[in-house]
């Protein structure tokens, strides 16, 4: 017969330690929960899900932190990819990062991205894992669009100057 221990915790108590499993069970029996973010004891209805580790007040903070972390990760990986592909547009040497994009020399970019697990980060990570295959290159959006629409870029095929 397990000993009944009164942990004496109440709503609003702040813990400096992670409660043990025993304490968590004890809390749950009293419709109380511990928030892993603010470290307060809160009533169960302050948590959106049975499995939530953080209270509803803390959820947006955590989500914002996640978003900030993934934005930073994306920027770091993208910079790595950009540098691996020479850091500038293969056609006009544009270097401003905002103008640059990964291009597939022989098309098939969408299929390739789908295969790599999606646009954005999954695709960039795929490029890293696969040693930056040279079927891809860096182009600025201008050169990329011109190639896509006209099949050539005016940079390499200067239009004949008007007489
Ligand atoms: Zn909280
Ligand atoms: Zn360019
Ligand atoms: Zn160009």
Please explain how this structure is put together.
A hairpin with a 6-residue loop joins β1 and β2 (41-43). The strands form two sheets. The chain has a two-stranded antiparallel sheet. It is α+β, with helices and mostly antiparallel strands. 38% of the residues lie in helices and 10% in strands. The chain has five helices and four strands. α2 (59-84) crosses α4 and α3 (109-116) packs across α4 (121-129). The chain has helices at residues 21-29, 59-84, 109-116, 121-129, 141-150; strands spanning 32-34, 41-43, 100-104, 136-140. The chain folds into two domains: 21-57, no CATH class; 60-150, 3-Layer(aba) Sandwich (His-Me finger endonuclease fold), CATH 3.40.1800. Bound molecules: zinc ion (3 copies). One zinc ion (ZN) is lined by residues 35, 37-38, 40, 54-55, 57-58.
Give a quick rundown of the structure.
The chain is of the alpha+beta class and 163 residues long.
Task: Provide the residue-averaged pLDDT.
Answer: 89
CATH architecture classification of the largest domain = 3-Layer(aba) Sandwich
Small ligands present: zinc ion
Radius of gyration, in Å, reads 27 Å
Estimated share of beta-strand residues:
5-15%
Individual helix count: 5
For the biggest β-sheet, the strand order reads 1-2
- Show unreliable segments: none
Estimate the helix proportion, in percent: 25-40%
What name does the CATH topology of the largest domain carry? His-Me finger endonuclease fold
The count of DSSP E runs of length 2 or more, i.e. the number of strands, is: 4
> What would you call the structural class?
alpha+beta
Overall structural domain count: 2
Series of secondary-structure elements, N-terminal to C-terminal = HEEHEHHEH
CATH class call of the largest domain: Alpha Beta
Distance between the termini: 101 Å
Largest sheet, in brief, is: 2 strands, antiparallel
Q: What is the approximate shape?
A: rod-shaped
């Amino acid at each position: 017969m397990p000993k009944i221990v009164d942990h004496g915790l109440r709503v609003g108590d702040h813990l400096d330690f992670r409660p043990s499993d025993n304490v968590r069970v004890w809390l749950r029996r009293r419709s109380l929960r511990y928030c892993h973010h603010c470290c307060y004891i809160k009533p169960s209805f302050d948590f959106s899900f049975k499995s939530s580790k953080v209270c509803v007040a803390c959820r947006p903070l955590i989500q914002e932190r996640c978003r900030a972390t993934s934005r930073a990760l994306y920027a770091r990986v993208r910079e790595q990819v950009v540098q691996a592909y020479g850091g500038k547009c293969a056609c006009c040497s544009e270097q401003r990062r905002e103008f640059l994009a990964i291009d597939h020399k022989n098309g098939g970019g969408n299929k390739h991205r789908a295969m790599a697990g999606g646009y954005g980060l999954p695709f960039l990570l795929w490029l890293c894992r696969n040693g930056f295959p040279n079927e891809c290159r860096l182009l600025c959006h201008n050169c990329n669009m011109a190639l896509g629409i006209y099949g050539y870029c005016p940079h390499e095929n200067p239009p004949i100057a008007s007489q």
